[in-house]
Amino acid sequence: MPKPPERIAVVGWGSLSPLGTNPDATWTAVVEGKSGIQSLSQDWAADLPSRVAGCVDEQGLSELEPLLRRRSDRCAQLAVMAARQAWSMAAELHAGIDRQRVAVVVGTGIGGLGTMHEQHQQLTTGGPSRVNPLTVPMLIPDGPAGQVAIDLGLLGGAHTPVSACASGAEALMLAKMLLQDDRADLVLAGGSEAPVNRLGLVGFSAMRALSCRNNEPDQASRPYGQSRDGFVLSEGAGMLALMRDRDVGSKPRLGWILACGSSSDAHHIVAPEPQGLQASRAIDDALRRADISPSDLSAVQAHATGTSLGDLAEARALRRSLGSAADHIPVCAPKGQLGHLLGGAGAVEAIIALQSLRSGLIPRSVNADPLDPEVDLAVTTAGNQTISSRGHDPLLLKNAFGFGGHNISVLLSAPAGNTPEPRG
What we know:
single chain, Peroxisomal Thiolase, Chain A, domain 1, 2 domains, eleven-stranded mixed sheet, two-stranded antiparallel ribbon, 14 helices, disordered C terminus
């Protein structure tokens, strides 16, 4: 039996995404229905089958020190900037915490893919002497977690869940476990990814996983849409500062992580189990651990990437787990605007989910209309929706699934009728 539910408080957050270089900018763009997807006009993309992607504005990295730029992959750079935002926002709370009691958990699906590609080019064109001596520390998946810990001087452990597109959400689950096991008093947790380069786009295109709507970038990512043809590759990072709720005292909370569920498909290294059987188990696990029923939910934030098989598997899993409650619970699919941030998706989207709960607004699922008739869910295709009051703080189920059959479901809550207040 799981332990009695213990709320984990969110006391700070930070993000860089194709929609904005901080959480407030990203949320404003989400509410306004903007797209972060753009055409790739660089010469290196000219012959690629998929030439659309979601990229972070370079202004978001403008304050990064030149030395750190040279010594870290873009994946780590994004993580550091998001972590700085979250750390600054939580300044009032972490001021009295020993740095040995602050842990870092940064998930990534691939890690330093850009470094791998660039240094392979250096090797093949210039020989061994042209390879950067920092190649290995720049490309290893735990580079972002290590750089965040170094940057902020955090000594409570640096961890890196690598579970493909579920990595950022799994980081939140691991952070919750660290806090509940009293291994840390504050955890900076999230995910980061920087896969928008020639190697990343070629690799996913070869799998026929990417959308090829090159002439309509803002229409390319179509989660749950009838005419979807694959996901759009994006970059970004999200980080959340987390503490045990009882330790926060009278200080304000941005929201709570109530429970996390997990399972594995054990089916195929890429394709999901088509009926969503094990994905449904992860959802059930989260609901059971939080001791809530499907009818208690105010909304669902779907993983929904825009792939044919993946979207249907998740829709079937949600219908199986939620039953008749799925007839009316609004389901939003943020990747229509963001694209797919892979290992960064779970954390960036979790911040959006908490902002949604705080504002009382479930965003429209951009490009989901017309809806695939096999998706038997109340997807928000018509526009932004108001969260209905159920006599308690609103609850949201957030899904994240990854290649290899990784399934993570997170239950989030936030104080209703509030807008996030910047601190620090």
